[in-house]
């Protein structure tokens, strides 16, 4: 009892955790409570700012803003069922929770739609015998089929060769293989019933009484391949793999202060108003596939592609001669075909939009479901076609194309219907940007409005559009206008060398030749955003740097997986700063006509759309572009390339069946789960059991843990090729790795560790007699749902300290070291890991790191870049200050980019010297989204 009373308690209100040391408490607060502390710190800053600027008031309370949206008001809950009222009252009292919708609250029912009493268990799924692997003979046959067809995508001839080799060598099958040939394997996969949603063909015939000289595109018959969307949704809802990460009803999510937060689709205002289960669809250009998802799975599940996004159609793309490229009639024909095809595909959902249907859900319960069209993900060209508007107009508002950021009302289906019924086509085209030849497919469905369901698109509007196509291009144009072509080319070459000199960082793509590549991908643009700002900082005016910094802040804020009210306020202010500072491009004649660009204009709608649909990272076209790889590109490569579409459809169907069979076998307990459920423990131990050379930076599955850093399971036995082994004795090791201060720093570390856990005086002459184990890497596991992560938001990155990385040059990564409880960078310092090692003392293992320390420059981030600057700490002799730290005080990796200064880099400068050659560095908060959240 005495030891318990002497323990330190968490200083965060309501937290009951206790700790043996100040170090443990500080790490706990900085990881578990970091987000709430950051929100409080920023909120206080906003209140102070609002007192000085009346045009930026504090966020409105939830009861004004959350349940109402301008003229659209949520229905009165007075007539709601008693259970819903009780739930609503309880959640209103208990702030910091979900407030469920008063009408649609996901009550379980039986298969006939009758509501079950509270606490009733779900009916058992009718699983066959747990040893029944039908249609496969046994577990090994299923795993083999899944391996050769899905995982390695083995060709038919190679499957035949493998089966022949198997039959020749494996006595287990008495001279036979699991499958006679690829045909038997394919037939077995085709006979799987789980996940079976067959493809169908819809033929669209040409108009009757066409003149003989009508163009070929009018006379052609078009085929649209599709799958029944109702059956697809039924299969998704019945997927037990989604259990625990699935919302059964709309909700309002508030933090402990009662402030609204937006996360998944069902947390948005649109779902609350519609009171339905929602669906998400998107289109693409090549082969024009149409994808569908349901809005219930959490965004992390959708981003992880756990069968939450699936192709439901391949739309016909009319072809024509070049002479019709600019023909208005041909353009209108293509648009009409596009809308009529989507309308025909979605028709099976129409009855379920007005009359509830009963569907089984991931938890095994049946529920009454109402369908609705909620969100359509599309880039700007497709939004033009979807909304039936004129090019260069906005699909969300009626602002004029020559002044898109000027006044404009919201576009709605009702407004468009009213205008088209009263005005001529010319007036509609010129004054409202409406193409009245096009009737959006949403007009065929109740409550659907194409203008309302178009969602933000981070990839094409923000990353590829505003950043790559606009800001990067304009910066180059600015340099050329200010310095002339010859000098501008010299500067751009040095900017490329600076980009190439960026130090290593886990998961960060390097640009060995700068940004000089012809074919840009979305990943290229995302990677360049992370390193571009420091590279141009000294070559352009501060206003231009601040313009890019404001845009990057806006982009990173709206990309978060959970967006609070103060985050929206930050995003609004960042956007305002961006609009103010981008005027440098107008003043310098780079953009003399201004900024009426549809993709850039779309940013002004993001705040409202986040409130409507939740965090945009769950509705970004990068999700469907990634799905496009597995649904279109890979199946096309596997085809014979002749009449490939039919082969691609069959490949998709087989993949869905294998996924459905695996989910069923997992649900029966016949296979271990591929994706761990939320109730299972984090898989840090999984990382510890992997050889360090095999570790990669990746998303991982498991429960959320705040932050944890572990060493490789086994110490490194030898250097790469040439060195045989590290000494085990501390003093000898110090000489071997050329770190003479290592013994005294390690003893000081041990003294600090022991004195932190004991109030008595410690012996200042401690000895470390145990063998020293040296490691070349450690794994940091932390909660980073805004980045590519597992379904519980967990990510693992590798911190490396090795004398020869890739057998070429040293690599010593930098880390963030937690020192006190102050939020953001004020409570941390940066360090460069020179050695990872561990030792034992009195039966306790101490995992440690020897680090070169960096100190903060100034009391605030840099005014131009918004990033903190740090410099190496030096002693009086001009040598770098070092310390030995426990791995527990490391939060995660830090990315340091040099402050390059005014001079040009040598052409042969190698990035491996970057962390040694400069006097100061930026702590790159744009290295990834988690860095942006913790470094401020």
Automatic annotation (TrEMBL):
Highest taxon above the source species: Eukaryota
Protein name: Uncharacterized protein
Organism: Hygrophoropsis aurantiaca
Lineage of source species: Eukaryota, Fungi, Dikarya, Basidiomycota, Agaricomycotina
């Amino acid at each position: 009892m005495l030891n318990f009373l002497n323990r330190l308690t968490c200083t965060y209100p309501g937290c009951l955790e206790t700790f043996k040391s100040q170090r443990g408490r500080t790490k706990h607060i900085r990881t578990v409570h970091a987000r709430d502390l950051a929100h409080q710190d920023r909120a206080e800053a906003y209140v102070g700012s609002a007192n000085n600027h009346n045009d930026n008031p504090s966020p409105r309370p939830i009861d004004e803003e959350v349940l109402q949206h301008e003229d659209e008001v949520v229905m009165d809950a007075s007539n709601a069922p008693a259970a819903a009222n009780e739930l609503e009252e309880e959640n209103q009292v208990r702030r910091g929770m979900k407030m469920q919708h008063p009408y649609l609250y996901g009550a379980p029912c039986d298969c006939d739609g009758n509501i079950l009493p509270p606490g009733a268990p779900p009916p058992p799924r009718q699983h066959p015998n747990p040893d029944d692997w039908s249609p496969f003979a046994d577990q090994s046959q299923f795993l083999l089929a899944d391996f050769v067809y899905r995982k390695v995508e083995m060709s038919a001839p190679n499957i035949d060769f493998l089966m022949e080799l198997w039959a020749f060598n494996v006595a287990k099958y008495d001279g036979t293989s699991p499958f006679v040939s690829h045909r038997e394997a394919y037939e077995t996969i085709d006979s799987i019933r789980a996940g079976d949603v067959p493809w169908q063909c819809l033929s669209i015939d040409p108009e009757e009484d066409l003149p003989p000289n009508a163009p070929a595109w009018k006379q052609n018959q078009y085929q649209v391949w599709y799958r029944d969307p109702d059956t697809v949704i039924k299969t998704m809802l019945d997927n037990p793999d989604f259990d625990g990460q699935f919302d059964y009803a709309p909700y309002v999510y508030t933090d402990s202060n009662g402030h609204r937060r937006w996360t998944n689709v069902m947390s948005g205002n649109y779902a609350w108003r519609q009171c339905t289960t929602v669906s998400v669809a998107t289109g693409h250009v090549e082969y024009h596939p149409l994808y569908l998802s349901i809005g219930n799975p959490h965004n992390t599940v959708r981003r992880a592609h756990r069968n939450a996004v699936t192709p439901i159609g391949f739309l016909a793309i009319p072809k024509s001669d070049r002479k019709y490229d600019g023909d208005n009639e041909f353009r209108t024909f293509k648009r009409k075909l596009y809308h009529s095809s989507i309308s025909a595909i979605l028709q099976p959902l129409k009855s379920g939009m007005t009359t509830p249907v009963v569907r089984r859900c991931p938890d095994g319960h049946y529920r009454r479901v109402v369908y609705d069209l909620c969100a359509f993900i599309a880039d700007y060209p497709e939004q033009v076609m979807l909304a039936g508007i004129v090019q260069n107009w906005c699909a969300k508002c009626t602002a004029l194309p020559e002044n898109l950021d000027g006044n404009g009302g919201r576009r709605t289906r009702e407004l468009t219907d009213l205008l088209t019924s009263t005005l001529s086509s010319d007036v509609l085209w010129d004054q409202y940007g409406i193409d009245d030849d096009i009737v959006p497919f949403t007009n065929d469905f109740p409550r659907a409005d194409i203008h309302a369901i178009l969602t933000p698109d981070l990839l094409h509007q923000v990353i590829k559009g505003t950043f790559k196509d606009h800001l990067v291009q304009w910066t180059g144009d600015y340099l050329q206008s200010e310095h002339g072509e010859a000098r501008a080319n010299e500067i751009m070459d040095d900017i490329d060398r600076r980009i190439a000199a960026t130090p290593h960082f886990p998961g960060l793509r390097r640009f060995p030749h700068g940004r000089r590549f012809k074919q840009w991908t979305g990943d290229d643009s995302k990677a360049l955003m992370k390193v571009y700002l420091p590279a141009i900082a000294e070559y352009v005016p501060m206003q231009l740097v601040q313009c890019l910094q404001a845009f990057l802040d806006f982009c990173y804020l709206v990309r978060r997986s959970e967006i609070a009210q103060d985050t929206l306020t930050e995003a609004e202010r960042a956007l305002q700063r961006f609009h103010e500072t981008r005027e440098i491009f107008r003043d310098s004649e780079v953009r003399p006509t201004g900024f009426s660009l549809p993709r850039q204009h779309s940013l002004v709608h993001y705040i409202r759309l986040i409130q409507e649909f939740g965090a945009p990272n769950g509705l970004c076209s990068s999700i469907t572009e990634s799905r496009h790889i597995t649904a279109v590109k890979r199946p096309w490569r596997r085809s014979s390339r002749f009449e490939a579409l039919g082969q691609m459809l069959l490949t998709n169907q087989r993949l869905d069946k294998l996924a459905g069979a695996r989910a069923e076998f997992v649900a029966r307990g016949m296979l271990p789960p591929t994706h761990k459920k939320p109730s299972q423990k984090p898989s840090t131990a999984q990382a510890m059991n992997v050889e360090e050379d095999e570790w990669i930076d990746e998303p991982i599955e498991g429960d959320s843990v705040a932050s944890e850093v572990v060493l490789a399971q086994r110490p490194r036995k030898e250097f790469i090729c040439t060195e045989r082994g590290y000494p085990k004795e501390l003093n000898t090791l110090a000489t071997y790795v050329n770190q003479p201060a290592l013994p005294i720093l390690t003893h000081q570390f041990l003294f600090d560790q022991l004195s932190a856990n004991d109030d008595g005086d410690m012996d200042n002459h401690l000895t470390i007699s145990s063998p020293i184990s040296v490691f070349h890497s450690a794994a940091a596991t932390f909660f980073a749902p805004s980045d590519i992560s597992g379904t519980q938001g967990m990510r693992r990155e590798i911190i490396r300290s090795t004398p020869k990385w890739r057998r070429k040059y040293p690599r010593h990564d930098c880390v963030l070291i937690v020192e006190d409880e102050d939020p953001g960078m004020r409570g941390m310092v940066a360090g460069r890991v020179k050695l990872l090692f561990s030792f034992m003392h009195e039966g306790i293992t101490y995992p440690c790191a020897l680090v070169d320390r960096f100190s903060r420059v100034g009391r605030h981030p840099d005014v131009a870049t918004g990033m903190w600057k740090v410099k190496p700490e030096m002693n009086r002799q001009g040598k770098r200050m070092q310390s030995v730290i426990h791995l527990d005080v490391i939060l995660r990796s830090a990315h340091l980019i040099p402050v390059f200064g005014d001079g040009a880099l040598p052409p042969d400068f190698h990035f491996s010297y970057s962390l040694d050659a400069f006097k100061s560095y930026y702590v790159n908060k744009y290295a990834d989204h988690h860095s942006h959240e913790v470094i401020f």
